[in-house]
Design brief:
The chain is mainly alpha-helical. It is 68% helix and 0% strand. It is globular, with a radius of gyration of 19 Å. The protein starts with a helix and ends with a helix.
Length: 281
């Protein structure tokens, strides 16, 4: 990876996904740029919906990434520093491209307004879009050799996705979008109209409490699984340190689910990661 591409990736990640950027600093310098390239790719495809004016434009961007990864890209793909860094990372650590293609395909769901049907579907979506990034980060820390992280990556991806969407619940609802599983709300007697109008009800709070508990369970299982991994692999899961704080904030704001989430100052996020790293890295 060229120093220019590595620098661009770090700058991009710092802006596009500040918390994952902070988490990447726990990784040793020798592998940090590769992990940042992976996370920057994840951040780019995750934000296509917000940057594309219509689904067709988003589909084109996702297809560009799919072609770039398979080597079928048109033009000078390497001129894009994010793609240049990702392709170098894939080559350096012999990462399989199949899971990255599935990540891209799963992100097509983001381009449309169809609700997430149920918790099982959400867990599958989180596994393909988030868990895979943690699995690959662990492979990078293992020198490219396959590693069985099992529950650590799987549960952390689901916890991360649940916490992220619980935090953005109010913002997404104001835009007429619901990424959390509709069946959980329906079972509590809550429809999309109630959500999109910002109506707080006992049913809505019960549904939110169910999802918060699910996030807490997945985060606990990931933490326990991470503690059983070799120490050199654990920095791949440093985000646990931030997600614990964020989930605590969600629990404190449980009665006002549409309110903007409380944001920790950057220094507090870094401190939480440093403490986590000292205990686990």
């Amino acid at each position: 990876m060229t120093p220019q591409s590595a620098g661009h990736v770090a700058d991009y990640l710092r802006t596009a996904d500040r918390e994952r950027y902070f988490a990447s600093l726990v990784v040793k310098p020798a592998a940090r740029s590769a992990v940042q390239a992976l996370y920057a790719f994840g951040a780019d495809v995750a934000t296509i919906r917000d940057r594309a004016r219509e689904p067709t434009a988003g589909e084109i961007r996702l297809q560009w990434w799919a072609d770039a990864i398979t080597g079928a890209g048109h033009g000078d793909v390497r001129a894009n520093p994010l793609a240049d860094a990702l392709l170098d990372t894939i080559a350096a650590y012999d990462l399989p491209t199949g899971p990255l293609q599935r990540l891209i395909n799963a992100r097509r769901f983001d381009l449309y307004d169809d609700p997430m049907p149920d918790l099982h579907s959400f867990e599958g979506y989180a596994g393909e879009t988030v868990s895979v990034l943690y699995q690959f980060a662990a492979m990078i820390l293992n020198g490219g050799a396959e590693v069985e992280t099992g529950d650590a990556a799987g549960h952390l991806g689901v916890a991360h996705a649940l916490i992220g969407h619980l935090r953005s619940f109010g913002l997404n609802a104001s835009r007429g979008r619901l990424f959390l599983p509709l069946a959980v709300y329906a079972s509590a007697g809550v429809g999309e109209g109630e959500i999109f109008s910002g109506t707080v009800s006992e049913g809505l709070l019960a549904a939110q409490a169910h999802l918060i508990e699910a996030a807490r369970e997945h985060l606990h299982k990931s933490s326990a699984a991470t503690a059983r991994l070799p120490r050199h692999l654990r920095p791949a899961f440093a985000t646990i340190g931030l997600l614990n704080s964020q989930l605590g904030g969600i629990e404190r704001q449980a009665e006002t689910p549409f309110a903007p989430p409380h944001e920790l100052a950057d220094w507090r996020k870094i401190a939480a990661l440093v403490i986590w790293g000292m205990r686990n890295g």
